[in-house]
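Quarterly update from the structural biology core.
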Amino acid sequence: MHDPEAALRAHQLPITAQRLAVLREVSQQPHATADVIAEGVRQKIGSITRQSVYNVLNVLTEKGLIRRIQPADSAARYEDRVGDNHHHLVCRSCGHTEDVNCAVGHAPCLKAHSHHGFKIDEAEVIYWGLCPRCQKKRSA
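Predicted structure, tokenized:
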């Protein structure tokens, strides 16, 4: 995120040290869990409660400044790449997560066989496999 203060202003959110620190941490550590983000924020601004970090993450997600993803059997992860309906690669072994551009075209970029009356605006796809590091470990 280039200018976190401008982003908060544009979404009519008060600018606080906690919000700025969380936004910056999400930007610096894409796909991090709330606990990892909290630890990074604490190292930069000192004391902040875990609940405060969760509250800020929820507000930023609701306002569309960050995106929350939650692969199966995994803690929620956060990123600041929003609005492009991209997908993710997740390592089955270590949980390493990478962005993958949309499968076909623009959002929702996939067509459901049947929409059951829904107006579909987003598709969330997670590709599972082993990252290069875990592949190396397995072959060693």
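The helical segments are 4-10, 17-28, 34-45, 50-62, 132-139.
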